[in-house]
Design brief:
With 319 residues, the protein is of the alpha/beta class. It contains seven helices and 14 strands. Helix 6 crosses helix 7. The relative contact order is 0.15.
């Protein structure tokens, strides 16, 4: 969530190989209002993991332009995010008296020798609001320039301007902090058909993230959604996935916590996998702590005029 001026509008777009999700939010004195919400399926065939080709990207841009023109949207600001896989994230110790100039130099030095970015990245950093147990620290983030450029190219035909490019793990953190009172330790699991992302928070503050690749058989049937593809894999696979996800989660907290948590961390579920009852039940049975579905609109006021359509009735971007 963003902190803006009263009455300011922003469009949030989640642009993925399977779907485009749109929300329009208005900042008010009382918090945040949802003024538009919709989802469009992208029925392109081929390997979803590699994204769209140039022809598909051009068609999606044209469809998106038509969609936004049909909405009573007045905002000229667009916020979106890229996969955490395309980001390099580090938490570095700093001195309390370090100036912004010193922090900028430390961030540049830390990211200067990233072999897989080849110097072609956008860099950002921030001083953490509260000192950690080990003292003060800063968050340094580098993202692949080509990923941001692809989003800009997709939105280039629109009259709206790309204002914010976030990273998925921080978008999950911000969603959690806006909607929930922080627990001591929390995992957020964003479960898709090809990848699950785990974000570890302590008192609502980002600590680390991990990626769990989900193997896909060569003879998989073509699916229209990530939820459908996961369901098609069968209950045995979903059981194995839940065990692998919890093992990965335990590894993250062992690496970050100085001692065993007094209470089992809360596990928040998001993404297509959170819509599969059997997978949720497997996680609830295997995890001793709370397992909760992440509600991104728990503390967001929804305008009564926003039309709600069941998943099956939501329209698709036509091929």
């Amino acid at each position: 969530m963003w902190q803006g001026k009263k009455g300011e509008l922003v469009i949030g777009l989640e642009i993925k190989p399977w779907t485009i999700c749109l929300v329009e939010l208005r900042h008010t004195e009382k918090g945040c209002d949802l003024t538009n919400l919709d989802i469009w399926r992208i029925p392109f065939s081929g390997d979803r993991g590699s994204g769209w080709n140039e022809a598909q990207r051009a068609k999606v841009a044209w469809e998106l332009e038509s969609i936004l023109e049909s909405y009573p949207i007045t905002s000229q600001r667009i916020a979106t995010s890229i996969s955490s896989r395309d980001a390099w994230i580090r938490i570095l110790p700093i001195q309390a008296e370090d100036t912004d100039r010193i922090l900028s130099k430390k961030a540049e030095e830390a990211a200067a020798h990233l072999p897989f970015f080849a110097g072609n990245y956008f860099l950002d950093y921030e001083r953490r609001e509260e000192p950690s147990d080990e003292g003060c620290d800063m968050l340094v983030v580098a993202v692949r320039r080509e990923c941001v450029d692809r989003i800009r190219a997709l939105l280039d035909r629109l009259k709206s301007r790309l204002s914010v490019v976030d990273v998925d793990c921080f978008a999950l953190e911000h969603t959690y902090r806006w909607n929930y009172d922080p627990d001591e330790w929390t995992w957020i699991a964003q479960i898709g058909a090809r990848m699950a992302e785990l974000v570890l928070l302590r008192k609502g503050v980002f600590q680390t993230f991990a990626i769990l690749d989900i193997p896909v058989p060569n003879d998989r049937p073509e699916s229209s959604s990530e939820t459908e593809e996961l369901k098609a894999r069968g209950e045995d696979f979903l059981y194995i996935l839940s065990k692998g996800l919890l093992n990965k989660a335990q590894a993250t907290i062992k690496a970050e916590a100085t001692e065993e948590p007094a209470e089992p961390p809360t596990l928040m579920l998001s993404g297509p996998g959170s819509q599969i009852p059997y997978l949720v039940e497997c996680l609830q049975l295997a995890h001793p702590g709370p397992v909760i579905l992440l509600d991104p609109f728990r503390r967001v006021r929804i305008n009564p005029s926003v039309p709600y359509r069941e998943e099956g009735e939501r329209h698709s971007v036509q091929e």
